[in-house]
Write a structure and sequence with these properties.
2 copies of one chain form a homodimer. Chain A is of the alpha/beta class. Chain A has one domain (2-224): Rossmann fold, CATH 3.40.50. Chain A contains 7 helices and 11 strands. In chain A, the strands form 2 sheets. In chain A, strands 3-2-4-5-1-8-9 form a 7-stranded mixed beta sheet. Chain A is globular. The model of chain A has no long low-confidence stretch (mean pLDDT 96). The interface between A and B is large, with 46 and 46 residues. Chains A, B: This is Dipeptidase PepE. Chains A, B: Its EC number is 3.4.13.21. Chains A, B: It comes from Kaistella gelatinilytica.
């Protein structure tokens, strides 16, 4: 496998994928066209507008982008594609659409054959075992929470440390992930913005300029440094 | 109907339901025992421990509390109850459990007969039409997102304004609710901590010391003051 699962597309104050441009170019070496999966539709943006955002970025790498929504035969499109990028937005909407169109398993099989895959945020969530550690609001009801399982754990993108100044009693991210672990025995990678997971062959590492927080059942959460295997 | 749907049980720096004690006493006037529904299990706390938290508070009002988990015949228990309180925690876990045990519709029918109902956080979410505007993490997969519909809209408890100082690209609460409205034509009440919804008969008002933010499809969000009808 050859994949990048990024916490976010855009760092605070930065431009779209500016911080990850070098690694994305390397991921898609030798490839001149990819399929963009726009179904997460951040803020309800149209599939076309969202694809154009990806298109503008990938033009810098001389890679053409086709939106998966453009194809009548989506199954054929995925089977013929050279590589994939799934953008962020709402994970429930993304997962519902992929299951409805019977594309989740197909996409997994294509990535497992070695076609490069880039995910960010919701697009990274679907690289995990299931979407039960998304931060998103359940605005639609998917037929299943299962995702591709390209990596043998779950991802929490945009991982955010508790803010001790906040006078608010909503749950912290850590509380939510610990609640998940009371119901599931699945490792969760708290991926801070600026970090990403890289899988080459069967080797999985965490990369970026932040520490990464790991949550496992019946263990205290712990932090690992970039470059370490997951 | 005679219900209170509160944003939270506990204000920052306050004690459990301290801010709402007077209104809760009024809601349960003439009642000496209620059933507590502990299924949301905040932080994975046991049903028994969670029920004890409620029990300690209601002892001040001379109201006995039985946990719904204590009954083998839960349907009989709900049908014989004088009133109900559903505590907060994880909405997915609460809704999954209520549907699995065929209690969602039964609870709704009992509340519609006039038995007083108190909800806080997840317990308020289930008073809305569905749970699609919860803030919680989808740690388990419920058989449906539909809830009781005691009020003809959805609730977003712990409503939180965007923090302009936060250097983070996760979605704001407002962005999430607007995403919900791209997929659903359902009014959403953004209930800030310290506020609650009161329904007496068919009259529904918002109460508390904060403004309440209302979201409707194809409209700019707007704020209403306490005492106004919803």
């Amino acid at each position: 496998m050859n994949i990048i699962l990024a916490s976010t597309s855009t760092l605070f104050g930065g431009n779209y994928f500016e911080y990850l441009q070098h690694e994305i170019a390397e991921l898609f070496t030798g490839i001149d066209e990819i399929i963009f999966i726009p179904f997460a539709r951040p803020g309800g943006i149209s599939h076309e507008d969202y694809t154009n955002t990806a298109r503008t970025f990938f033009a810098k790498l001389n890679i053409k982008v086709k939106g998966l929504h453009e194809f009548e035969d989506k199954i054929g499109a995925i089977n013929s594609a050279q590589g994939f990028f799934t953008g962020g937005g709402n994970t429930f909407l993304l997962v519902k659409t992929l299951h409805e169109e019977n594309l989740m398993t197909l996409l997994k099989e294509n990535v497992e054959k070695g076609k490069p895959y880039l995910g960010s945020s919701a697009g990274s969530n679907i690289g995990g075992l299931n979407m039960k550690t998304t931060n998103d609001m359940p605005i639609v009801y998917p037929s299943s929470f299962d995702t591709m399982g390209l990596v043998p754990f779950n991802i929490n993108p945009h991982y955010l440390d508790a803010n001790p100044d906040l006078k608010h009693n909503g749950e912290t991210r850590e509380t939510r992930i610990k609640e998940f672990l009371t119901q599931n025995d699945t490792k969760v990678i708290g991926l801070r913005e600026g970090n990403w997971i890289r899988k080459v062959g069967s080797k999985i590492t965490v990369e970026g300029n932040q520490l990464t927080r790991i949550f496992e059942k019946n263990k205290e959460p712990y932090e690992i440094e970039a470059g370490n295997e997951l």
